Amino acid sequence: MAGWTTHDGLAAALPQANVDTDQIIPARFMSASRKEGYGDYLFADLREGNDAFPLDRHAGISVLVAGPNFGCGSSREAAVYALIDAGIHVVVAESFAEIFAGNAVNNGLLPARTAEAGAILEALGTETAKVRVDLETRRFLVDDREYGFELSEIWRRKLVNGWDDIDLTLSRTEAIAAYRDARRGQAPWIWPKTAPS
Amino acid sequence: MSRTLLDKLWDAHEVAFDEENGSLLWVDRHLVHEGSHHAFAKLAERDLPVFAPELTFGVADHYAPTRGRASIADPAIAQMLERLERNTERYGIRLFGLRDPRQGIVHVIGPEQGLTLPGLLVNCGDSHTSTHGAFGALAFGIGATQVAHVLATQTIWQARPKSMRIRIDGMLGPGVTAKDIALHWIAKLGTDGATGHAVEYAGSTVRDLSMEGRMTLCNLSIEGGARFGIVAPDDRTIAYLKGRPFAPDGDDWDRACVAWRELVTDEAARFDREVRIDAADIAPTVTWGTTPEQALPITSTIPDPGTFDGGRARAAREALDYMGLTPGQRLEDIAVDQVFLGSCTNARIEDLRAAAAILKGRSARVPGVVSPGSMLVRAEAEREGLDRIFVEAGLEWVASGCSMCVGMNGDVVAPGKRCASTTNRNFRGRQGKGARTHLMSPVMVAAAAVTGRLTDARALMMEQS
């Protein structure tokens, strides 16, 4: 994935707590291959028959500001694919479900955690605002008002460099093999015996 | 230095640590399913082999049809199952496929086959992987990119979570189950109450739970925000595992048992957070809203959203609107359209026995589906005659799979219909577009089937005695 340091975009509010991954992408759309794109399925059920839905009312939204515990529920990475394929680069919330946040970073999407998300939601209301996000300073501007966000150094580096964990780990193959051999010596029962087919 | 069970498991699996990336952990068991196709595609793109196919196991469950398996009508479902077969065959991974008599839900068959053992690190691309923590394993769900990473390296990068102990003491009352314990603590702490923590369940109540009960408890950890749920292994754990197909035997078994008994939190170890619950405070619990935290004892009434703080008030209003309920309504007055008994949370043999005990000699007023957690559970239930009890009551007895829990395999709740369900998530649309889900234990689902509404199962249990 491509790394990035700053993002300039348009923000809209989704003032809902506990936005779960079943809402982000309903299960019935998940058999599609990644190449087909998942953007059309983003919030499919919430959007149906709802012209007031923020992503339909405003074009070109790339920053979504949401309620706490965003991305809870299933570990489906397709929820992140749907957001990215619909043009979302950043989700701002007071808190994120852990698996979702990890999936987001692994795909270049920033889960920007800030205690001020509620205030931003209130300020946005049903309108949009210009946003500039800076990974180096861990700060973002919403219509010239500055806010900080929390992001671990590990995750910041991954986003900036576009790092892939597999590349990082393959350089440690010897250490992994040594660990495996030691573990097998200490606890051979971990390797399952061949059970009858 | 005194260590928690989490510390012991973590330290034993740490291949490397660095400040930038956290812990690189060795994975002892990697379970994949149809939804893992994205991960296999990532592997193929880079032309990488699977590092340890002998530690990786495939399971057909999420898309497994529970009826009409001979010729699958839906091409998308057929394609997902074929992809899994192709991928596991290509990489030399053992598959518990649709035609395998041991097929079932991944978090049911792992323990059932003895693949899940104390002291292991278990990963699967499914958030309910915490189920395996019931055996004293470090088990957690991961996303597709991480699944690809585990396939390629047999390791995973992970930041060490904070530790949290939920201690439950005392005897559970009649009709109160592990499902009620979980819904009780989630309602108390919230769906994000344990975020960032690994939960160890302890106390006399947990010790008294069967392995099935402990699995239910650990399974629901993620619904309270905890990625990990763990119970220290004991005699009950060891008795459950003895003789399982993939469990060790002979000298290995003896050595393993010695090691497993060390997997306890040291007396003086400190947790980052402690929560205490009195078992006497737990009643049969049902959800009324659209998150597992929106749950109450069955004897309660629907709350007034105005009694909640800010964001929770809005969430409660939206939930009641979606669920078609009004404040002040008695939970026991809520009529249901159908019931579902199944899922990785509550479809083991003990769950089916408990539900059948309520249904025996009674008729269901509403239709329902019973999907056992595995085909071996199904066979055992049939040996015990449980299938006849369900069918005679008017419920449908089907094959094993994730079924109506996840709305991607053909088993769905119709829009606007209300389902009393033994599953784990009551999110909007989880069981199908517009579906209204009430989570509860197997005995409570059976009671709802008999009366056609949410019902305190204790009343039916008293009638029987």
Automatic annotation (TrEMBL), chain A:
Q: Which reaction does it catalyse?
A: (2R,3S)-3-isopropylmalate = (2S)-2-isopropylmalate
**Sorted UniProt keywords:** Amino-acid biosynthesis, Branched-chain amino acid biosynthesis, Leucine biosynthesis, Lyase
Give the matching Gene3D superfamilies: Aconitase, domain 4
* GO MF annotations in UniProt: 3-isopropylmalate dehydratase activity
**Enzyme kind, highest EC tier:** lyase
Q: Which domain of life is it from?
A: Bacteria
Cross-referenced InterPro entries: 3-IsopropMal_deHydase_ssu, Aconitase/3IPM_dehydase_swvl, AconitaseA/IPMdHydase_ssu_swvl, IPMI_Swivel, LeuD
Question: GO cellular-component terms in the record?
Answer: 3-isopropylmalate dehydratase complex
Signal peptide (residue range): none
Q: In which pathway does it act?
A: Amino-acid biosynthesis; L-leucine biosynthesis; L-leucine from 3-methyl-2-oxobutanoate: step 2/4
Show the coiled coil region(s).
none
State a single Pfam family of this protein.
Answer: Aconitase_C
Biological process GO annotation list? L-leucine biosynthetic process
Name the EC number(s).
4.2.1.33
Which chain regions cross the lipid bilayer?
A: none
Q: Which residues form the Aconitase A/isopropylmalate dehydratase small subunit swivel domain?
A: 2-115
Task performed by this protein: Catalyzes the isomerization between 2-isopropylmalate and 3-isopropylmalate, via the formation of 2-isopropylmaleate.
The text of the family note is: Belongs to the LeuD family. LeuD type 1 subfamily.
Relate the assembly described in the record: Heterodimer of LeuC and LeuD.
List the protein's name: 3-isopropylmalate dehydratase
The taxonomy runs:
Bacteria, Pseudomonadati, Pseudomonadota, Alphaproteobacteria, Rhodobacterales
Automatic annotation (TrEMBL), chain B:
- Which reaction(s) does its UniProt entry say it catalyses? (2R,3S)-3-isopropylmalate = (2S)-2-isopropylmalate
The annotation note on the cofactor reads:
Binds 1 [4Fe-4S] cluster per subunit.
Q: What are the recorded GO MF terms, alphabetically?
A: 3-isopropylmalate dehydratase activity; 4 iron, 4 sulfur cluster binding; metal ion binding
GO BP, sorted A to Z: L-leucine biosynthetic process
Its annotated pathway reads: Amino-acid biosynthesis; L-leucine biosynthesis; L-leucine from 3-methyl-2-oxobutanoate: step 2/4
- In which residues is [4Fe-4S] cluster bound? C344, C402, C405
- UniProt-listed InterPro entries: 3-IsopropMal_deHydase_lsu (IPR004430), Acnase/IPM_dHydase_lsu_aba_1/3 (IPR015931), Acoase/IPM_deHydtase_lsu_aba (IPR001030), Aconitase_4Fe-4S_BS (IPR018136), Aconitase_4Fe-4S_dom (IPR036008), IPM_dehydratase_rel_enz (IPR050067), IPMI_cat (IPR033941)
E.C. designation(s): 4.2.1.33
Task: Tell me if Amino-acid biosynthesis is a UniProt keyword of this record.
Answer: yes
Aconitase/3-isopropylmalate dehydratase large subunit alpha/beta/alpha domain location is 7-452
The record's Gene3D superfamilies line, in alphabetical order, gives: Aconitase, domain 3
Report the cofactors. Answer: [4Fe-4S] cluster
Kindly state which keywords UniProt assigns to this record, in alphabetical order: 4Fe-4S, Amino-acid biosynthesis, Branched-chain amino acid biosynthesis, Iron, Iron-sulfur, Leucine biosynthesis, Lyase, Metal-binding
Subunit text: Heterodimer of LeuC and LeuD.
Role noted for this protein = Catalyzes the isomerization between 2-isopropylmalate and 3-isopropylmalate, via the formation of 2-isopropylmaleate.
Question: What's the family?
Answer: Belongs to the aconitase/IPM isomerase family. LeuC type 1 subfamily.
Name of the protein described by the UniProt record: 3-isopropylmalate dehydratase large subunit
